[in-house]
């Protein structure tokens, strides 16, 4: 499965002033530490360590994630919407890659 | 869509908080880094040392007391997880989200994981409601905590035991 | 059933149809099915389960994920037609002069036994309850010889339908190991005798009182809950529209375009495919076998569009999801009146009872009320096919973070049975699937593809 595809889902009907649930999923291996002979293998593991979301350019949410978040991470949060616009979500992994997804808020 | 760097203006008018740790990793573009405590290990992916739950709580909250949340937090976690690799959890905090008093952070912490912090969610008054959900990994049967932190510094906690039949965690 | 008969049935009045059916049932010739021996597999190499020599050791190549391993059990029965029957029940003689060590016996019990049996040992988690509670077995006055025989080959004591694996007769355990376990079991008197020792207050520890928790991974048709939708959207959807390598018609060229998604069909609506997934497996006369959607795609796609779509491969699994999801909400309705389908149901039912692998257990041992159906095997709550099992494949398997169809599911079931798997597109598996879906057709179960499960 190719890494870094971001899927976002918003409620079908949104009114001005609603608090809406934003659901997002990114395909990512979320590597976990490997052990050899009972000792952790020292290497840089690739996992999403930060998620950021902005609504019309204004930051509304951030998550610090660890290797104890499941593969293909799913995150859900709320945002209060007062104007039409765009929700952008960035997923940062530990290899410095940033995966972006966006969804439109329409009234 | 895959991008090396996001639009630099994306969070330019966001509510920034002061950078709380020194020497934050330079891997992430400055305009995107909002200064949450981010140990260098996490940003680089290098293994961090095992951590005891007491040390995790101390690292995150210092000596501030954790109050039982009572009905302030609704925490959905399964009592039994057949598969520790994907354990759905949901936290709904029933506290106001006013400009001057809001839920600023929600933490999910699994006591018996090698490193207990699963995730930290940082919210703003614009969130409207302090509700988050994600899927976590559990190495074994453990207490899982949902902790809500308010902008005024209060900490509320709910603890649930999740029994794991097959663990799903090595990190 | 012949094509013209089918046409006739479709257009005549119900009364005539009934008469016609009687006529057809009496006269229809049942085709002979091909078996996995004759069938040229169109499955991926990993799914074919090729047995070969590797450095002097025989192995079966299997999938690299999930823990399939490569141990070869070719000397034991499989689901392949013509595979020898499992050896009949065998009497075991408890050797005189061997002393049992209860400590060693307890350690052995903690292994495979507690997947089915409860013992008074708080360290055991999660114990199952497929078999009887053994917490006070030592209080029942059973002889050592009797217990030895039950472990050696339970069929001698409880009859041919006993779901317990013959640990001694199969060679899985030595006489010494069985004697050790017998010694341990005889110590389980209870306290007071006959009342199980209280080792914990936790009701979840005891599989007889444990809650059955179905994990809630969210709406399976929500692409932020079910990762396979994104995978299908990026693999199967473009493939549907893609002309063949030599300019052949795409899937869309013959079957129509993918329209906008709706609530039941999150990958988009293909009008011509509505109901198709509900009618498979079908008897495909040209190939002389039953075929699921997955089986059919593996031969149909290369023949028409020129796209290779090997069974159990990513393209096949996701295309099957795209096609089957077009029938979401519709009841399964395989053609049970087709004499060839009826014959497949019968073959499938026989396979369902067939003892395979070194453990010599059958599907029915775990998946009917007689055995483990609706009980815990370790921490796993086993499905009961008479009631609700085996529905709706392919699905997203969270434990492996990949889609699997019912064939990978069957192949995976071979792992604990210590049996070699057949290629995923084996006609025998198609018969077994036909039997399972005949139950769903009778019950009127509705399609929901892709599910998300543990």
Feature tags:
heterotrimer, A: 107 residues, mainly beta, Immunoglobulin-like, 4-stranded antiparallel sheet, 3-stranded antiparallel sheet, 9 strands, 52% strand, elongated, B: 171 residues, 2 domains, 6-stranded mixed sheet, 2 helices, 8% helix, globular, disordered N terminus
Describe this structure in words.
The N and C termini of chain A lie far apart (34 Å). A four-stranded antiparallel beta sheet of chain A has the order 6-5-8-9, with no helix packed on it. Chain A has a three-stranded antiparallel beta sheet with strand order 1-2-7, with no helix packed on it. Chain A has no helices and nine strands. Chain A is an all-beta fold. The longest helix of chain B is centred in the middle third of the chain and has 9 residues. Chain B contains two helices and ten strands. In chain C, strand 1 and strand 2 form a beta hairpin. In chain C, 34% of the residues lie in helices and 6% in strands. Chain C contains 15 helices and nine strands. Chain C is mainly alpha-helical and 454 residues long. In chain C, the strands form four sheets. Chain C has a three-stranded mixed beta sheet. Chain C folds into two domains: 280 residues, Cytochrome Bc1 Complex, Chain D, domain 2; 125 residues, Cytochrome c-like domain (Cytochrome Bc1 Complex, Chain D, domain 2, Orthogonal Bundle), CATH 1.10.760. About 5% of the residues of chain C have low confidence. At the B-C interface, strand 4 of B face strand 6 of C.
């Amino acid at each position: 499965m190719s890494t870094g595809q971001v899927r976002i889902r918003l409620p079908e009907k949104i009114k001005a002033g609603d608090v809406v649930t934003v659901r997002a999923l990114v395909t990512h291996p979320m590597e976990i530490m490997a052990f050899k002979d009972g000792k952790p293998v020292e290497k840089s593991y690739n996992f999403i360590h930060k998620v950021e979301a902005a609504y019309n350019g204004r930051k509304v949410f951030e998550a610090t994630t660890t290797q104890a978040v499941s593969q293909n991470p799913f995150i859900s949060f709320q945002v209060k919407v007062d104007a039409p616009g765009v929700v952008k979500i960035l997923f940062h992994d530990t290899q410095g890659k940033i995966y972006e997804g966006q969804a439109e808020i329409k009234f | 869509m895959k991008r090396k760097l996001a639009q630099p203006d994306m969070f330019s008018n966001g509510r920034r908080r002061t950078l709380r740790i020194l020497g934050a990793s330079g891997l992430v573009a400055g305009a995107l880094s909002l200064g949450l405590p981010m140990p260098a290990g996490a940003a680089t992916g290098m293994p961090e040392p095992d951590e005891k739950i007491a040390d995790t709580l101390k690292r995150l909250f210092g000596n501030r007391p954790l109050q039982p949340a009572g009905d302030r937090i609704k925490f959905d976690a399964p009592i039994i997880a057949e598969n520790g690799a994907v354990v759905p959890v949901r936290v709904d905090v029933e506290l106001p989200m006013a400009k001057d008093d809001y839920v600023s952070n929600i933490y999910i912490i699994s006591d018996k994981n090698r490193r207990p912090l699963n995730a930290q969610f940082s919210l703003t008054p614009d969130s409207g409601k302090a509700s988050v959900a994600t899927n976590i990994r559990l190495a074994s049967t453990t207490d899982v905590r949902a902790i809500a932190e308010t902008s005024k510094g209060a900490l509320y906690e709910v603890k649930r035991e999740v029994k794991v039949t097959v663990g799903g965690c090595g990190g | 059933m012949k094509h013209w008969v089918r046409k006739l049935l479709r257009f005549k009045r119900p009364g005539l149809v009934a008469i016609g059916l009687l006529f057809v049932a009496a006269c229809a010739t049942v085709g002979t099915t091909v078996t996995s021996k004759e069938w040229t597999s169109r499955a991926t190499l990993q799914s074919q389960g090729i047995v070969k020599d590797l450095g002097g050791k025989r192995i079966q190549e299997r999938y690299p994920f999930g823990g399939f391993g490569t141990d070869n059990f070719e000397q034991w029965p499989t689901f392949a037609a013509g595979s020898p029957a499992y050896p009949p029940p065998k009497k075991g003689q408890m050797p005189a002069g061997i002393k049992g060590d209860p400590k060693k016996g307890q350690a052995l019990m903690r292994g495979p036994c507690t997947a089915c049996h409860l013992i008074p040992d708080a360290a055991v988690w999660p114990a199952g309850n497929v078999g009887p509670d053994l917490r006070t077995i030592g209080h029942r006055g059973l002889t050592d010889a009797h217990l030895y025989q039950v472990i050696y080959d339970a069929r001698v004591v409880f009859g041919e339908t006993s779901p317990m694996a013959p640990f001694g007769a199969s060679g899985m355990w030595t006489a010494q190991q069985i004697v050790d376990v017998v010694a341990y079991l005889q110590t389980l008197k209870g306290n007071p005798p006959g009342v199980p020792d209280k080792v914990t207050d936790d009701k979840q520890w005891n599989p007889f009182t444990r809650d059955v928790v179905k994990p809630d991974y969210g709406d399976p048709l929500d692409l932020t809950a079910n990762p396979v939708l994104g995978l299908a959207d990026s693999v199967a959807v473009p493939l549907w529209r893609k002309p063949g390598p030599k300019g052949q018609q795409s899937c869309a060229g013959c079957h129509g375009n993918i329209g906008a998604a709706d609530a039941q069909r999150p990958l988009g609506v293909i009008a011509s495919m509505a109901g198709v997934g509900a009618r498979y497996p079908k008897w495909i006369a040209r190939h002389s076998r039953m075929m699921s959607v997955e089986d059919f795609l593996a031969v149909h796609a290369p023949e028409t569009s020129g796209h290779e779509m090997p069974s159990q491969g990513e393209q096949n699994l996701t295309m099957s999801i795209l096609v089957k999801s077009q029938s979401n909400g519709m009841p399964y309705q395989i053609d049970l009146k087709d004499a060839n389908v009826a014959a497949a149901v019968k073959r499938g039912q026989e396979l369902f009872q067939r003892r395979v692998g070194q453990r010599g257990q059958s599907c029915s041992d775990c998946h009917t009320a007689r055995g483990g159906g609706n009980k815990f095997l370790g921490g796993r709550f086993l499905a009961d096919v008479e009631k609700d099992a085996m529905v709706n494949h392919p699905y997203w398997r969270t434990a492996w973070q990949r889609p699997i169809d019912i064939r990978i599911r069957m192949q995976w079931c071979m792992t604990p049975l210590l049996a070699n798997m057949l290629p995923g597109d084996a006609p025998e598996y198609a018969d077994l699937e036909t039997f399972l879906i005949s139950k769903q057709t009778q019950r009127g179960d509705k399609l929901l593809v892709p599910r998300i499960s543990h």
